[in-house]
Design brief:
The protein is mostly helical. About 55% of the residues lie in helices and about 0% in strands. It comes from Sphingobium xenophagum.
């Protein structure tokens, strides 16, 4: 279980914990793929910035 009420002891502690979280995520490519398949994740053309219609 992930502790969401964490107190960081230093900048290095924050970086270390972010790296751990990133490594856990990249070990689960299916999680990223399922998020990317959701309709809201793809957005719509009108929602994208800088596209002239």
């Amino acid at each position: 279980m992930i502790d969401t009420n964490r107190i960081f002891t230093s900048h290095d502690n924050i970086v270390d914990l972010c790296c751990e979280a990133w490594n856990r995520l990249i070990d689960q490519p299916w999680r990223i793929m399922t998020i990317g398949r959701r309709k809201w994740a793809r957005g719509s053309r009108s929602m994208q910035v800088g596209i002239n219609q």
